[in-house]
Amino acid sequence: MSTPDNRQQPSLRSQRLNQITHAPHARLDQLVKAHAPFETRAGFARFVVAQYLFQSELVALYNDPELIAIIADLPERCRAEAAKADLADLDTEVPAPLAGAVNNPSKAEALGWLFVSEGSKLGAAFLIKRAMGLGLGESFGARHLGEPAGG
Q: Which of 60, 62, 114, 145 is the most exposed place for a label (fewest CB within 10 A)?
């Protein structure tokens, strides 16, 4: 049965998420681009520091048994150690944690954080190509942009 032309179909949850996250994502994208992370290795190292700080904040979520019950391969998806190895490749000190953003989240909040982290992997496929222009890749300096082991 079709709906009358004057009715709109309800939007999908994914479409609503895309709509409400569009503006913050655009601001973040502009901020990242303003720091020109793919112009030099030093610029890329600053980008990896930010990635490490974000990913290290989520390690507990990627290892949470309740969340693993929902997403079985969750621990393998965590990119904190890959970012840490990238920092070593780039002769960049591992920064002290800036804990506090993710503090005892509800299951819904935890899944939201994971949604953001996993969603960032969509852009990573394009970013790793840019990193290759700096002589970096999935085995040196830009591991955190590559596919997780077994992925």
A: 60
